[in-house]
Structures are given as structure tokens and as C-alpha cells.
């Protein structure tokens, strides 16, 4: 496929998927703003449904907090599993000693 055909196929894709219409509406709303925003890219992102910079920072902080809590819970879970395994091993050892002790008394 030659370069012009690729361009045309991509343009048709953008048009059929609604991208051109969405971008056109956003650019028109930016053009019609009486007080032009100082951060035009942020304006466009917001109009397209993306989070604002402050919302993004808030979400990042929340994500880091949740990751920290997850790590703490995971460590506690691993510790509890380790303790459970140790208790099971201890129980098996005690059961084995009782069996040996019972066999010794029966033999006498």
C-alpha cells in the first residue's frame, strides 16, 4: 500500500470511529472560549473526558496509598501463613511423638 492510500485509510478510520468529530467539537469549544485557557492541552484533555492535573495527582496519591496498604496486608498474610505452617508442623511432630510413646507403652 502506498503512502497516500495509508493516509486515506487512516483518515477513514478516524472518521468512522468518531475521533474527528470529537476533536472538532473540542477545538470548536476552545475557539469559542472568550477567556482562552492558559493550559490549552489540559482544556482539551478535560473536554475529552480525561482527569484534570489535580485529579490525576489525587488519583496517583490514592494509588500509592492503596499500594502501601496492599503491601502491608500481603506481608501480614505471608507472616500468618508462615505461622500457620509452623503450627501445623509442630502439631505433626507432637502427634508423631504421641504415637511413638503409645507404641513404647504397648510393647512393655
UniProtKB/TrEMBL annotation:
Any one GO molecular function term: transcription coactivator activity
InterPro entries per record: AMY1
Main subcellular localisation: nucleus
Keyword Transmembrane helix: no
Annotated compartments: Nucleus
Coiled coil: 56-90
Keywords from the UniProt entry: Coiled coil, Nucleus
Stated name of the protein: c-Myc-binding protein
Organism field: Rhynchospora tenuis
Organismal lineage: Eukaryota, Viridiplantae, Streptophyta, Embryophyta, Tracheophyta
Amino acid at each position: 500500500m502506498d503512502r497516500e492510500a495509508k493516509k486515506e485509510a487512516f483518515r477513514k478510520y478516524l472518521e468512522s470511529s468518531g475521533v474527528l468529530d470529537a476533536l472538532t467539537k473540542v477545538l470548536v469549544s476552545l475557539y469559542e472560549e472568550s477567556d482562552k485557557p492558559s493550559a490549552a492541552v489540559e482544556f482539551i484533555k478535560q473536554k475529552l473526558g480525561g482527569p484534570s492535573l489535580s485529579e490525576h495527582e489525587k488519583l496517583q496519591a490514592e494509588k500509592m496509598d492503596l499500594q502501601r496498604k496492599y503491601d502491608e496486608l500481603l506481608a501480614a498474610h505471608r507472616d500468618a501463613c508462615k505461622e500457620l505452617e509452623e503450627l501445623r508442623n509442630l502439631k505433626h511432630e507432637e502427634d508423631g511423638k504421641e504415637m511413638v510413646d503409645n507404641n513404647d507403652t504397648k510393647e512393655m
